[in-house]
Amino acid sequence: MAKEFKKLNRGGELCWVLGILFISLGVAICKKADLGVSMIAAPAFIIYDAINELVPFFSVGVVEYIVQAFFVIVLCIVVGKVKVSYLLAIVVGVIYGYVLDMWLLVLGSEPFQTVWLRYVMLVVGDVCTAIGVACFFRTYLPIQSYDIFVKDVAIRYKTNINIVKLIYDFSLLSISLILAFTLFGDVKTFNWSGIYKTSFHSLGLGTLITTFINSPLIAISGKIVDKLFGGEPLIPKLKDFLDKH
Fold first, then answer.
1. What sections of 34-141 are H helices per DSSP?
2. DSSP letter at 235?
3. What average pLDDT is seen over the chain?
4. Which of these, 77, 93, 144, 213, is most buried using a 10 Å CB contact count?
5. C-alpha 66, offset from chain centre
C-alpha cells in the first residue's frame, strides 16, 4: 500500500528559497528562448541593453535590483507606509539579481536554435516563474518588490490578488513597450516580420503570451504549492517581528 503523502506545514522559509530559485531560472530560460521575457523582467533587460556600453560593469542582475529598489519607493507611496519588510525587499532584490546572473551564466547567451524549441522553452520558463511567484505569495519572509507590491496592494485595498497581478502585468507591459520604443531609436529598422521568432530588445510575441497566461499559471501553481507546503514558519519569532514591522 502506497504511503500517504504528508504535507510540509512549516514551509514558510522553503517557499522563499524556491521562490528565488524558480523565478530567476524561469526568467533566464525565457531570455534564452529569445521570444521576449515577461513584462515583469523586461524593464531591467531593456535598461541594461540601453546602458551596457556606458556602464559595462553593470550586469542584468545589478540593473534588476536597482529597478526593484525603485518599485519599493513606489510601493511605499501607494500603500502610504514604510515597513521593514519593504526595506528588506531591496536586500532580496540584490540576492535575486545575483541568482539571475548565475542562471544566465549557466544557460549561456546563445538562443535556442529552432523556433519550436524556443516556444517550448518559453512555456517551461513561464511555468518555472509561476511556481516561484506562487511560492513567494505563501512565505512570510520578505520577497522581491515586484511580488510584495502585488501582495500588499491587494491586502491594502482588499482586492483579489490575481486581479491585482493581472492589472500590474499589463501596466508593466506598457512601460516596457515605451522603454523599448524610445531608448534605442531603431524601431523602424527592426524586421517586424520576424517578431514571432525573435525579440525586439527582450520584447516579443513571447512577452504577450506570458502577459496573458502568467496570472492563470500562478493561480494553478498556487493550488499545487498549497498541497505540498504550508506557510507556517520554522522561526515563529522572526515572523512575529516582521509582522509588526
1. 42-51, 60-79, 84-107, 115-136
2. -
3. 88
4. 144
5. 14
pLDDT at 123 over 90: yes
**CA Rg, the chain, in Å?**
18
Q: CB neighbours of 19 closer than 8 A, spacing ≥ 6?
A: 132, 133, 135, 136, 139, 143, 147
Segments making up each domain of the chain, as ranges = 12-181+197-230
CA 31 → CA 78, 82, 227, 234, distances in Å? Answer: 31, 33, 30, 35
The whole-model pTM stands at 0.87
Residue range 144-162, pLDDT digits in tens: 888 788 888 888 888 888 7
Position 3 scores a pLDDT of 55
Neighbours of 189 (CB within 10 A): 7
Nearest to 207 by CA among 109, 153, 129, 93: 129
Q: How far apart are CA 79 and CA 177, in angstroms?
A: 26
- For cell 506557510, the residue is 231
d(CA 46, CA 57): 16
